[in-house]
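Lab meeting, item 3. Inverse folding demo.
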């Protein structure tokens, strides 16, 4: 957990572990925390020398969320965004903050406009926004975080945030581990969202210090009070789950892990063309990683 060890060494370890898993580009995510933690994380991240180069920025999941949908987030750190604090994040990040998940119903229109004008991607998550509210928000907000989790569900009389996502079709992430979301619901969502649904891991690791003390429980992570706090997924495992449990063709499952999230964050050099970065993963017929190529360096698994 980067938030438990705000250091260049922590980011380096993440890079090394993830390149072994075939990941050539990731956003390190920080959950709701104190101002000091967020600002220190930004400082460490923007001065990182990127030993491998697969760390490409930060995703701030909070603190601007709705406490009624906090999930495993620490409520004492939840806050409403102010123009002053958002400007401080923007100024200090110097572009390293790529995305912020927030509850739009808790924020002012000025905050939403400020983030949009700065180029930081807003994603709706940990939100109590209803269908009517959310359909308006998605006119300005391009994404939604971990579909079905920490949001008002789909109901035949109250479509909720899930209904608005199905209607407006923003880029929408999903945790395809069969625990955060049942595979049958992923199958339904995929039929509706098509190329706007992409995979995230929502992965954490065991941690016994700091506010987020994750405990491994069989095949996922929980907080000490039993609250679901994260997955044990790798991105390749999420791809395999989509193929084996959701009946998504392999090529499309791979696009869900590569092309679609790259499109969202405007990573325009993700295609395989002469002259572009050769960031590739070579798999055998059993989807076992043989080689990962990153910035012209070959990493053999």
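The presenter then showed the designed sequence:
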């Amino acid at each position: 957990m980067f938030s438990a060890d705000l250091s260049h060494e922590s980011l380096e370890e993440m890079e090394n572990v993830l390149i072994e898993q075939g990941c050539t580009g990731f956003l390190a995510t920080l959950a709701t925390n104190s101002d000091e933690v967020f600002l220190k994380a930004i400082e460490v991240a923007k001065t990182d020398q990127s030993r491998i180069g697969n760390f490409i920025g930060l995703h701030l999941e909070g603190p601007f969320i709705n406490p009624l949908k906090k999930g495993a987030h620490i409520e004492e750190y939840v806050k409403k965004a102010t123009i002053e604090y958002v400007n401080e994040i923007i100024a200090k990040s110097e572009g390293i903050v790529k995305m912020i998940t927030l509850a739009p119903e808790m924020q002012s229109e000025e905050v939403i406009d400020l983030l949009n004008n700065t180029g930081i991607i807003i994603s709706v998550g940990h939100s109590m926004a209803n269908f009517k509210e959310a359909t308006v928000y998605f006119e300005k907000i391009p994404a939604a975080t971990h579909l079905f989790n920490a949001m008002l569900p789909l109901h035949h009389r109250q479509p909720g945030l899930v209904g608005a996502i199905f209607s407006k079709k923003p880029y929408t992430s999903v945790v395809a581990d069969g625990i955060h979301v049942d595979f049958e619901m992923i199958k339904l969502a995929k039929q509706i969202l098509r190329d706007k649904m992409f995979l995230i891991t929502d992965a954490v690791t065991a941690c016994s210090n700091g506010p987020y003390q994750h405990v491994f429980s069989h095949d996922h992570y929980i907080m000490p009070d039993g609250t679901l706090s994260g997955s044990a997924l790798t991105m390749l495992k999420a791809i395999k789950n989509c193929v084996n449990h959701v009946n998504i063709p392999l090529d499309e499952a791979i696009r869900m892990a590569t092309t679609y999230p790259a499109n969202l964050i405007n990573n325009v050099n993700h295609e395989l063309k002469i002259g572009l970065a050769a960031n590739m993963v070579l798999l055998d017929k059993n989807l076992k990683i043989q080689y990962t190529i990153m910035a012209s360096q070959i990493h053999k698994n």
